[in-house]
Design a protein that fits this description.
Number of strands: 14
Strand content: 25-35%
CATH architecture: Alpha-Beta Complex
Low-confidence stretches: 37-46
Largest sheet: 6 strands, mixed
Number of helices: 4
CATH superfamily: tt1808, chain A
Strand order of the largest sheet: 5-8-9-10-11-12
């Protein structure tokens, strides 16, 4: 039996409510919203596809390898990002370069966020989440990765935001703020495409 999800709450009420939930919710416009929702043609389901999970895991693993010995940390799925408008978002993968607090659920200085796209979340990712992420002063790179093919789009903050597109296993996304590059061969390792 599904429990009723509260319609509106404060950020403090959300934090107290959210720790008791089995699903992951973001806090958007004063209300909880499920992080992963998939349309299977007949109904909405909570969860991510295997392809989505593998791309996110590969990205987190590659970032961990590239950042070894540095003060920045790769976080997969569970790091909350506080948005200036009051929303809380969970990126599929993020890099946090702020002070480490083992008891906090928030990232203190997210520099890179990665979202793995799906048909059901694509519109929200490219509109509402993109605007939320752009409003966080610390975020310098926002990378959207396809789960269906080795392709991605990355927004980079310089004076203004710049959009670059990448395609193919030979591509690499330069993450200037971290002085690294993410090879698409590593991001899509273990995947096959039709």
């Amino acid at each position: 039996m599904a429990l009723a999800v509260p319609k509106r709450m404060t950020a403090e009420e959300f934090e107290a409510w959210h720790v008791k939930q089995t699903e992951r919710y973001e806090f958007v416009d004063g209300a909880p919203r499920l992080k992963f929702v998939i349309w299977d043609g007949a109904k909405m389901m909570v969860g991510a596809t295997n392809a989505h999970s593998l791309v996110a895991l590969n990205a987190g693993s590659e970032l961990k390898r590239l950042l070894r010995g540095r003060s920045c940390r790769a976080i997969v799925a569970d790091g909350k990002i506080r948005i200036p408008n009051g929303n809380f978002r969970y990126a599929d993968v993020a890099v946090d370069c702020g002070p480490y607090d083992p008891k906090s659920t928030f990232l203190t200085e997210p520099v890179l966020v990665i979202e793995v796209l799906s048909k059901s979340t694509r519109w929200i990712d490219f509109t509402k989440k993109l605007e939320d992420y752009k409003s966080v002063p610390a975020i310098r790179h926002i990378l959207f990765l396809s789960q269906d093919e080795p392709a991605g789009q990355m927004w980079t903050r310089e004076t203004d935001w710049r959009l670059d597109e990448f395609s193919g296993l030979d591509a690499a996304a330069p993450i200037a703020a971290l002085s690294i590059s993410l090879a698409f061969a590593a991001l899509y390792e273990g995947m096959t495409f039709e």
